[in-house]
From TrEMBL, chains A, B:
It comes from the Bacteria. This is 3-isopropylmalate dehydrogenase. Its EC number is 1.1.1.85. It is an enzyme of class 1 (oxidoreductase). Substrate binds at residues 96, 106, 134, 224. Binds 1 Mg(2+) or Mn(2+) ion per subunit. The record marks 141, 192 as: Important for catalysis. Pathway: Amino-acid biosynthesis; L-leucine biosynthesis; L-leucine from 3-methyl-2-oxobutanoate: step 3/4. Catalyzes the oxidation of 3-carboxy-2-hydroxy-4-methylpentanoate (3-isopropylmalate) to 3-carboxy-4-methyl-2-oxopentanoate. The product decarboxylates to 4-methyl-2 oxopentanoate.
Length: 357, 357
């Protein structure tokens, strides 16, 4: 039976970069006889425009039925002033939560061809290859109660709740350890256990899970120190596992160390093989519609999808190799361009990957 | 009437670096006729050893009575395994909270003499001079309820609460705007308003306060983006104002951009002129007692104290100039040493600043 892929191009540069990623996926589909069937829908601002909400029930049903989801990016100034309850991000948070996509994998990988793009000194980042495993469906993002109210003295106040249960921590810790097993067997768990009750439980449960992984060298680091160490000596890390909020912050910091966030894909996985795949970068409304956005992070998200949801290692490797080949050819979109390289647009970049594949 | 300074050397390298800072303070006292009187007490692990708690009531009373407090650093492996309720950090959090030291100023300044120490490319950080204004007595650090419990199904769970009231946000926003007024008139408020209720109130109140500061160019940034932008182009920032948790993370990240956290002082201010002054770095237990720690951040904390709590601008300037002079002389402790400079210990560095002053 053919596999169902739901494609959600989203907002801003989303549709442009997705068009290129789909070309690459279609070619891989033929070449490796993957038997994929694609269908399309909207998420984020585009869904607000079409359905009145950032994630329509019918879209969610389609996402549930699909074997994997490819997402472009969501959000843009057009929807900045609408009712917060239906802002584009709400659709993203809802699909993550409703599909139980708790395991967010965010690699920060420095492509040797793009070593100069980093704002860090070459010796600090050369060969950088970190994987951040972020808990994606719990913590302060979804904690209840959360409220905004007026106190008796007339003052406004608002609060959020940061909850974690043992089982939520255990399952994301396992993802961290499993990833470390197939990489360099080093896992760093990041928390703020010197201040937060939730972090104390986090640390205790990670220690318990560690017993099942005697081969893994486990360390713990406070989030403030982790934010420093990523700048000071990022190569000390292999896999980092952390909660939703800290993972949001640290994964963005880590991705920027590479200087080429336009190259970084991500995966959000449920307890089975199902996953949503998307570039790490945002919807970049400032350059949307100009045909200059970098489609490579989305193309590499296709490769991640083949690897994690469908175990199609050969096809995944081939796409990564094709991306590396176009970089070797000196082709660059504006965001990663440097002196001596050939500047190309979104479509030309997609075509080059297709040709290399 | 003479001014009372309470000195809390703390743990690890605390006593060593404080000894040098006190030498500098005593000299400034004489030279500028400051009429300061110093007294000493313990905080953190040293207080646990002496009083059984990380902040004794009598110490807190002394701190309340003092006009300013100089702190070394707290914490160390010796107290890592004691009852979490009396860990060294608890003393630090308690003194901040009890004295109402809500306004935490953390400069990230790159000394031209130490430009090489940064892990970032020189052109990215040359001339870097950011001030992070962190809310220090509210938010998730102190929010109630916080609890660790066992659910009916036998599973453990724990949670923290992140509350902010209008008045808490307003007073720290004012500090941010006031600092921006005497600097480059640019303030960036960092939150996570696309996810958190507390951040939505934060942003709304900052906007209200902005009306009183028409000269200030205010921007808002999500915390994940701020963590990226600090790496990508830190010089885009002048003053950053943010909440307790985000400020903890971003100020450490920002200080590491300079590559010389051993140089960075900080101030924690209440609603009046009272403040606690301490280096940004920690207690560095690994090098404690060896006489090699860098005392300059603590010496510069003295200068911050003179400036913010006592308005002794000439004395503050003189100390900063003396520090700059010893750097010009090529003197360096191990943490900031580079080829061609003279490596000195803690005491020799303190003596050199005294001589320069
Ligand atoms: C858009 C936003 C809600 C989202 C998040 O905070 O998770 C984004 O920053 C991300 O990291 O995917
Ligand atoms: C020691 C710890 C509780 C403290 C904090 O998180 O505030 C420290 O990291 C700091 O930034 O002063």
């Amino acid at each position: 039976m053919s596999k169902q892929i739901l494609v959600l191009p989203g907002d801003g540069i989303g549709p442009e970069i997705m068009a290129e990623a789909v070309k690459v996926l279609q070619l891989a589909n033929d070449k490796f006889q993957l038997d994929f069937e694609l269908s399309y829908d909207e998420l984020g601002g585009a869904a607000v425009d079409k359905y009145g909400v950032p994630l329509a029930d019918e879209t969610l049903a389609r996402a549930r039925a699909a074997d994997a989801i490819l997402l472009g990016a969501v959000g843009g100034p057009k929807w900045d002033t609408i009712d917060p309850a239906i802002r584009p991000e709400r659709g993203l948070l809802k699909i993550r939560s409703q599909l139980g996509l708790f395991g967010n994998l965010r690699p920060a990988l420095l492509y040797p061809q793009l070593a100069d793009a980093s704002s860090l000194k070459p010796e600090i980042v050369a060969g950088l290859d970190i994987l951040i495993v972020r808990e994606l469906t719990g913590g302060i993002y979804f904690g209840k109660p959360r409220e905004s109210k007026v106190l008796e003295n007339g003052e406004r106040m608002a609060y959020d709740t940061l909850p974690y249960s043992e089982s939520e921590i255990r399952r994301i810790a396992k993802v961290g350890f499993d990833m470390a097993m197939v990489r360099n067997k080093k896992l760093c768990s990041v928390d703020k256990a010197n201040v937060l009750a939730s972090s104390q439980l986090w640390r205790a449960v990670v220690e318990e899970v560690a017993k099942d992984y005697p081969e893994i060298e486990l360390s713990h680091m406070y989030v403030d120190n982790a934010a420093m160490q990523l700048v000071r000596a990022p190569k000390q890390f292999d896999v980092i596992v952390t909660d939703n909020m800290f993972g949001d912050i640290l994964s963005d910091e880590a991705s920027m160390l590479t200087g080429s966030i336009g190259m970084l894909p991500s995966a959000s996985l449920d307890a089975g093989n199902k996953g949503m795949y998307e570039p790490c970068h945002g919807s970049a409304p400032d350059i949307a519609g100009q045909g200059i956005a970098n489609p490579l992070a989305t193309i590499l998200s296709v490769s991640m999808m083949l690897r994690y949801s469908f175990n199609q290692v050969a096809a995944a490797d081939a796409i990564e190799q094709a991306v590396s080949d176009v970089l070797d050819q000196g082709l660059r979109t504006g965001d990663i361009w440097s002196e001596g390289c050939t500047k190309v647009g979104t479509q030309a970049m997609g075509d080059a990957v297709v040709a290399a594949l």
